[in-house]
Design goal:
The protein is 24% helix and 18% strand. The chain is built from seven helices and eight strands, in the order αββαβββαββααβαα. Strands 1-3-4-5-2-6-8-7 form an eight-stranded mixed beta sheet, sandwiched between helices. α2 packs across α6 and α3 crosses α5. The longest helix is centred in the C-terminal third of the chain and has 15 residues.
Amino acid sequence: MEDALTEIPPPSRFFEEDLNNFTPPSIPLPSPFLVFSNPRPNEPLRPSLLILAISSPSLYVFHQLSSKILIGSLILPEIPFSGNSIEPSLGDKSCNIYTLNDADDSIILISVQCSVAAERSHIVAKLLIGDQIIPDRVLILDSVQSQNFRGKLSPDETFSFKLETSSERKGLGDSTLLKGIDYFPSGSVVDSLAAALLGRCQMNNIKGTLCVSWPEFGGAVVSLVKSLLQRNVLPSLDLSINGDAGNEYSRFSWTKDHPSDSELYT
């Protein structure tokens, strides 16, 4: 008598490709798109500097900037609008586009407050740095992800690193955007939207800098990011943080640190 445990099972009645016929194909997500508050001319926006704030500290610093003007948004169909406030808020799941100083859009800020899936990063990067927004220079602000960092990270330490495109790195002396910051350590990795944006700059021969800071949350890293921006990037803008803002940042940090309660970018 044959052993039922060791006997070779009979062949399946179906081929593997036939079994896949019973699984309905996944519905493709609609493409993201840009919406501007005022009708834009046929020619694209050409800012001298495009800043993309992704990290919690950078989002908080720019949220406090009262001189910015909302001019548009990136719409991701998979991100619901429910729960968003009428006025821009740190708790919104949004990706708003602002001008920072004057009418000719010389500096544009994009605050990425929503989660962008890894498989959507390249299409989003192509929209933000593409046919409608063609910057001379790009600064991306993100956080160091502990799982991607080669080395030990202490929550008591505060530091920042940078990565640059080849065209930015060729600049000498005062022509580089961020001075006095070490390069990201060899063996460490940056992924998702920040990597896609920097890669987009490299492909289009745009001067691009990615600045990552650690830790992801906390008053000390907010001060670090604010100092870097004030010293190297936006010396003429008032980036002061009012005294009542601490509690708001604490609530924002807690929300972002608990993804089960929020879909904000972490």
